Amino acid sequence: MSDTPTVVLVHGALTGTSVWHQVVDRLQRKDIPVLAPALPLRGLASDIAYLSGFLTTVPGPIVLVGHSYAGSVISGLTDDKVRALVYVAAFQPDAGETTGELNGRWPGSKLGPDTTTVRPYPGGNDLYLSTEDFREVYAGDLPAEQTAILAVSQRPIDPAALEETLPGQPTWRTVPSWAFVSTQDNSLPAEALRFMAKRAGSTAVEVPSSHAAPLSRPDEVTALILNALT
User: Fold this and answer.
1) Is residue 1 pLDDT above 50, yes or no?
2) Residue-wise DSSP of 92-107
3) In the sheet that 82-88 helps form, which strands lie side by side, from edge to edge?
């Protein structure tokens, strides 16, 4: 068994596993084992349980990477195989905090009732960004042609997940962490990212990026993951 940790890339809300394609390509070219599971996005506790189950099938050490909402998910993991956490424009909640609460604590987020749409499904609701607001809110540094595709192929989240508190103590209290602060983020304000990274003692880098950092800044995101691997 290789001593090289497997990098597990976890997507957030509004985009799916494809958000990691360019990062996966860069890691594979370096012969680094990588996986990118798809979250159900139906609830924080259930997403944590889903990812925990997935990790039991991964042999050897793991570096967990979370984008956006997935930062809350990886913060709730308790797995001795996890050697490092990497937060990419991501939430780093403390015990008792919710994702939605953290997103609204600082001014600057354009993600809200005026820019989102809720569609019911049997047993719950799905939250989408309005297609006309997607580029400005989520991915302003990507070409309009690309964001037009992303806007109509979103992976929605049940908004109830954003109001669930983190169960127990966060993993970042006991596992080393790195944080990518996207300074042109209109979804999760840079001040929020700075606060959470400092509180967690994360090794942070600041990059002039939108919220869609894995797509718009794959080189910088990959570099941060490689730092966590060393």
Assistant:
1) no
2) -PPTT-BHHHHHHSST
3) 34-35, 6-10, 62-67, 82-88, 177-182, 203-207
